[in-house]
Amino acid sequence: MHSNQRGGETVANLQVNEIFGPTIQGEGPSTGRHATFVRLSNCNQTCTWCDTPQTWVYTEAKAKRHVDGKVYSKDAEVHEMTPNAVIDRIKELQQAAGMPHGLTGHIVISGGEPMLQGPGVIGLIEQMQLRSTYLVPFEIETAGTIMPPSRLLDFGVQWNVSPKLQHSGNSKRVRYRPNVLSTLAYQRVAFKFVVQRVDDFVEIDEIVSECALPPNAIWIMPEGITTDQLVTTALDILPATLSRGWNLTYRLHNLLWGNERGH
Ligand code: SF4
User: Are 233 and 13 contacting, i.e. CB atoms less than 8 angstroms apart?
Assistant: First the structure.
């Protein structure tokens, strides 16, 4: 079953990998904000260093594209849920953490690639607003390769867009959609580029110029999981970041919990 009825209207279900929190947003302009995460399954990219391979590495062929080479069980990792069931779970988690007064904080829809499930994401945001006494702030995390449904662009959510570079291992045809990035540039947006070395700035400069991305919306994030890796890379790339008028973001969750799932 892939949808359910609400007052005669069909609401798409969501393919969910995990729902976790309350925790803090670890990256970008909302770093440190109280957040509950809805991680959706499936992705149209195959980034070699992906830190959530459980959302898409379900075959041997895909495992060959990821540095760990491990195949995850789709049955164990993908859970079909209605938007209301997702909201119930968020409430349950928040209540268990000592917040009895209803929904609070940011809701971060992450993945995988949430824009593979545009109708379900719309349903989740609409249901949430119906069930909440205040306007729940949403953030949507995407690689920016799939044009969001126009209705979703009217919601005023925070878009965290992370365009993939050559070092992700995806072909340019798969990882780069200038029209999507240019459209998202007019939203409330942070363009987050994962950088391994200073040389990566050549590719980012091209994207920023071609898509006319505003400098104050650009965030550079060092790649790495261990604190040592992150600090070393961050110090290397900081001068090139500042000289372009861009921002640097760390990975607070990696600093606190390493690569442990569920934070
Ligand atoms: S786009 Fe994100 S979720 Fe998808 S493979 Fe790349 S890093 Fe992983």
Answer: no
